[in-house]
Amino acid sequence: MPREDVTKVVLSESDIPTAWYNILPDLPGEPMPPLHPATMQPVGPQDLAAIFPEALIMQEVSPERWIDIPGPVIDVYRLWRPTPLYRARRWERALGLTPKQRIYYKWEGVSPAGSHKPNTAVAQAYYNREAGIRRLTTETGAGQWGSALAMACRMFDLDCLVFMVKVSYHQKPYRRVIMQTWGATIHPSPSDQTEYGRKVLAEEPDSPGSLGIAISEAIEVAAQNPDTNYSLGSVLNHVLLHQTVVGLEAKRQMELFEDTPDVIVGCVGGGSNYAGLSYPFAMDVLQGRAKMRFVAVEPEACPTLTRGRFAYDHGDTAGMTPLLPMYTLGHTFVPPPVHAGGLRYHGDAPSLCALVKAGVYEAAAYPQTSVFEAAVSFARAEGFVVGPEPAHAVKRVMDEALAAREADEERVILFNNSGHGHFDLGAYDAYNSGTLEDYPLPQEVLEKSLAALPPQPQPA
Ligand SMILES: *Cc1c(COP(=O)(O)O)cnc(C)c1O
């Protein structure tokens, strides 16, 4: 039976994990390598060397199950890790649950940037610094990844150059201000700083920008400057790897609660926060030691796992990156302006997609009005105003708990509360005032963007 006298478990600094868990050796099915778009051959380390340091390229393809976390990275983690794990006692009561239904959440909103993203930003800044790099470039939409990287670069004395989607640059000035406070340089994208940006501006001077354009600008700067590398905040294996500190801590904390999750829930933009929480638990399932359900949650407006096609596709909109095997809506897909900026991505991490394809993970999609309704219910009980992204997980958790209550079933639910929503109050304002809109994705729009998938490799 679970501990009934505990609301949150806070570990001590000496409990910060000392190794990350790499799921690659435990994944079901044949590994599918990323392909070079021109040759359709597997991408080699040399193809990536212009924009990533060797240590991260090696992690990207590592067959090792455990990878040591460098001491200087752990030293930065100490600022906010370990993060607390809560039992949602007040929300359980508000939902009218019985003692058979229990809800737990890992709270990543305590990091300086307010989300899980610094877990990988800090590691990436460290390895680049070790490789003699002076500056990192990246793109950011709503600003969560840009602010995590801006902070991490400061910790390791690197310059940070962020291409921020122009419409967000103007709509979300506070994220820009926090990045500048950490010393980063921010350009609204498309910018006049790159050849690609100038080309877009010449064709469309009033372009609002997109993540795809911003990625292209950031990669161009990294590829052309030997002292500059590029940094990505989700999707790639090494990013998901760094996030497993979340789940490794959570396993320990669930033990101290003397409880075991039946179902683990998380929101998915590119897959990093959900992989971070769930992979260390999935390890036990994949190795045959445990049984558990896993539910990945996404917006109805950007339903990659629930309605996308499993195919090789580009990671960016411009079609410059290697082809990744994943569920995708097509790299030309333009997501509607839902408030969960971090979930507006056309693809997902290949490892997570492989788990969905193998039936180990389930996926679900929700319209944003139902998501905010659940987030408000959570905020009124637990106090935390969560980001629009984890609000998707909150919605699924609520449905799981209520269904178990109706069926009078035991169900222990754990979810990743990946960040706070203090920079997203405009979204709550729209919900509170009844002006929030849903964007169900019309089938013909989906088919049009799937028709633009690149040619697929022929089976050997
Ligand atoms: C970026 C972001 C996400 C989505 O990205 P993943 O890589 O899927 O985790 C989710 N939650 C928060 C708070 C984010 O900032």
Description:
The chain has 460 residues and is an alpha/beta fold. It is built from 19 helices and 15 strands. The protein is globular, with a radius of gyration of 21 Å. Bound molecules: pyridoxal-5'-phosphate (PLP). The site of pyridoxal-5'-phosphate has 18 residues, from helix 13.
Query: What do the pLDDT scores average to?
Result: 95
Q: Strand pairing plus helix content: what structural class? A: alpha/beta
SS field, number of helical segments: 19
Q: Hetero groups bound?
A: pyridoxal-5'-phosphate
Poorly predicted runs: none
Spatial extent as radius of gyration: 21 Å
**Helix content class:** 25-40%
Ends distance: 53 Å
What does the main sheet amount to?
A: 7 strands, mixed
Shape: globular
Spatial strand order of the main sheet? 1-4-5-15-10-11-14
Strand-residue fraction? Answer: 15-25%
According to DSSP, the number of beta strands is 15
